[in-house]
Write a structure and sequence with these properties.
The complex is a heterodimer of chains A (298) and B (334). With 298 residues, chain A is mostly helical. Chain A has one domain: MetI-like fold (Orthogonal Bundle), CATH 1.10.3720.10. Helix content of chain A is 74%, strand content 0%. Chain A is built from 13 helices and no strands. The radius of gyration of chain A is 24 Å and the shape is flat. The chains are: A mainly alpha (298), B mainly alpha (334). Chains A and B meet through helix 6, helix 7, helix 11, helix 12 and helix 13 of A and helix 1, helix 6, helix 7, helix 9 and helix 11 of B.
């Protein structure tokens, strides 16, 4: 009898396992080639960022006038820049800055965007109108230009660039969450929760938000990719990370004057940006396929 | 349709007011004294006071805003600190260069991106499909300024095929009419100039158009794939239509709405990208001027430039919205 019961419990557990949509999605993700490629790239990037001091052969900030514009060699695998700094070491340390920018600015956009979207979608009426008009106004600016304007106001610094990138990404999150909330709040289980006496906060965070997670996760991943690109663009224009910081975009800005003499100074930081951004884009595409199987192969 | 256009134009009013407020606030959100920020540490008290007076910074905020709106409606965006010329005339001189560059970049991105997307979709999972989607994915992951630098290095410095910067050779003479050099050289009947202008335009336009091209190719492919799976396509094949007719007459027409949306949205990417591309190719357009103005802390130009870009962006989005009905008669405007 006890054995039979155990078997039943086991079966129930297996069934629960199979019906957990997140686990299903994760399985689909690790089965897809692009998902795995994205995860691998991001894992490598994280590894490089965490172990930068161990992996970098030289100090990324140490200048050496005797070793200016050295071509790639066994001594300096990716060559040196105009100040004689080792490019490989700078790229390795630069991964920390790019990941930091991506994560911090997107977190900022996520917190405010989700907050605005939830409130607008849930309460509707005038609140919705005011919030969404504000988002529309922000979307009326080409995004990088709005970021440039914000940095022009606050002054060229990496932290201001992160803030600017965070702000310009808020409307995207607000729109996605609002549209999810609008469809979810009409569901029967929301009425049931309300009938059971659940308050607004409980309904918003316990019932609506978890059900709006799928598009949010995809958008977050893709936004990290664009945030890294936008930060590199701002730094390239001299409006983000300042010298001698080994930010990838700032490194490209330094390389402009030496294209003829030392093209490797411009080549490798650009490849590093593509590598990092590609990782998040691949993961975003993989997640979209995994979380919304209807979209697969489309 | 007319009702819809009027409705859309009315809906633009609050957006444009909001844009104007944000642009107005640019100067007022500068931490500390805006006049000091604009003129730098070495400015004398008299210079600071003169600037405050000329920009009306001493007045209460609501009076400043009222004056700003009044001037805006008269097309007055203030005067540049660098040149003391009216902002609007500085923008007018440079906008054609940006327009020409963006236009040719758009032509490149649509004429390469759409056919690539269609071909990838009708040959799904072929080597071409995989290759073009891989290229498109790398394309959307690439910083435009890096691509520009690589183009200059390869095609201008190493191979010498294209000039690395500017719009026209010093020795080429062209009488400006519209300041769109391609148009001007045709109006002048000067074909040597036309060749020279196109030669200068090619590299920056391809660099600027590459990322939108990648996005358009991806969108065209997925939109076509969705349509190609539908029943009416099977019916079209079943009734004996040729493949070409099915793809171009039936499938493409139905796949066009998302493609047009994404092409319209890319215009914003192009305008933003123009800032980067113009800086790299020393292209004397609005984007480069805006960046120069930020370095010089010429805030009236920064305000005017951003307002101008946002205005163009909003206008293009409106055109895209209105074009849906022409493409897809099923869309009814109420």
């Amino acid at each position: 009898m006890a054995g039979k019961n155990n078997k039943k419990i086991k079966q129930k557990k297996i069934m629960q396992k199979n019906t957990n949509p997140w686990l299903e999605a994760f399985r689909r993700l690790i089965k897809s080639r692009i998902g795995v490629a994205g995860l691998t790239v991001i894992f490598l990037l994280l590894l490089v960022a965490v172990f930068a001091p161990v992996l970098a052969p030289y100090d990324p900030l140490k200048t050496n006038i005797m070793a200016r514009y050295k071509a790639p060699s066994s001594e300096h695998l990716l060559g040196t820049d105009g100040m004689g700094r080792d490019i490989l070491s700078r790229i390795i340390f630069g991964s920390r800055i790019s990941l930091q920018v991506g994560l911090i600015s997107v977190s900022l956009a996520l917190i405010f965007g989700v907050g605005f979207g939830l409130v607008a979608g849930f309460y509707g009426g005038k609140v919705d109108m005011i919030i969404m008009r504000l988002m529309d106004i922000m979307l009326a600016f080409p995004s990088i230009l709005l970021a440039i304007a914000i940095v022009a106001i606050l002054g060229p610094q990496l932290k201001n660039a992160m803030l600017a990138i965070g702000i310009i990404n808020i409307p995207r999150f607000a729109r996605i969450i609002r549209s999810s909330v609008l469809s979810i709040k009409e569901s029967e289980y929301i009425s049931a929760a309300r009938a059971l006496g659940a308050g607004d906060m409980r309904i918003l965070f316990k019932h609506i938000l978890p059900n709006a997670m799928a598009p949010l996760i995809v958008q977050t991943t893709l936004s990290i990719a664009t945030a890294i690109l936008e930060a590199a663009a701002l730094s390239f224009l001299g409006l983000g990370a300042q010298p001698p910081s080994p930010e990838w975009g700032a490194m490209l800005s330094d390389a402009r004057s030496s294209l003829q003499k030392a093209p490797w100074v411009a080549t490798f930081p650009g490849l590093a940006i593509i590598f990092g951004v590609l990782g998040f884009n691949l993961l975003g595409d993989g997640l979209r396929d995994a979380l919304d199987p209807k979209m697969k192969n489309v | 349709m007319l009702n819809y256009i009027i409705k859309r134009l009315l809906a633009l009013i609050p957006i444009l007011i909001g844009v104007a407020v944000i642009v107005f606030l640019i100067v007022h959100l500068i931490p500390g004294d805006p006049a000091q920020t604009m003129l730098g540490e070495r400015a004398t008290d008299a210079q600071l006071e003169r600037l405050r007076e000329s920009m009306g910074l001493n007045d209460p905020l609501y009076i400043q805003f009222w004056r700003y709106v009044k001037d805006l409606l008269h097309g007055d965006l203030g005067r540049s600190i660098m040149s003391n010329n009216p902002v609007i005339s500085e923008l007018k001189i440079r906008f054609p260069a940006t327009l020409e560059l963006s236009f040719f970049a758009m032509i490149f991105s649509v004429f390469v991106g759409v056919p690539a997307g269609i071909f990838a979709a009708i040959n799904q999972n072929s080597w071409f499909d995989n290759l073009s989607m891989m290229v498109a994915l790398i394309g959307v992951s690439m910083p435009i300024f890096w691509l520009g630098l690589m183009f200059i290095w390869l095609f201008a410095v190493e191979l010498g095929w294209f000039p690395p910067s500017s719009r026209i050779s010093v020795e080429t003479v062209l009488n400006p009419v519209t300041n769109l050099y391609v148009v001007d050289s045709i109006l002048n009947g000067n074909f040597t100039a036309l060749i020279d202008v196109l030669h200068h335009l090619f590299l920056p336009a391809v660099a600027l158009g590459t990322i939108p091209m990648a996005i358009i190719a991806r969108m065209t492919r997925s939109s076509m794939l969705e349509v190609l799976r539908q029943d009416f396509i099977r019916t079209a094949y079943a009734k004996g239509l040729k493949r070409k007719a099915v793809i171009f007459k039936h499938a493409l027409k139905n796949a066009l709405v998302p493609i047009i949306t994404v092409v319209g949205l890319q215009f914003g990417v192009l305008l933003g990208g123009a800032v980067m591309t113009e800086t790299i190719f020393s292209w004397p357009g609005l984007g480069k001027y805006l960046v120069d103005a930020i370095y010089a802390r010429d805030f009236p130009i920064v305000q005017g430039g951003i307002l101008f870009f946002a205005g163009v962006f909003v206008f293009v989005n409106l055109i895209v919205d209105l074009s849906y009905a022409t493409v897809d008669p099923r869309i009814q405007y109420e």
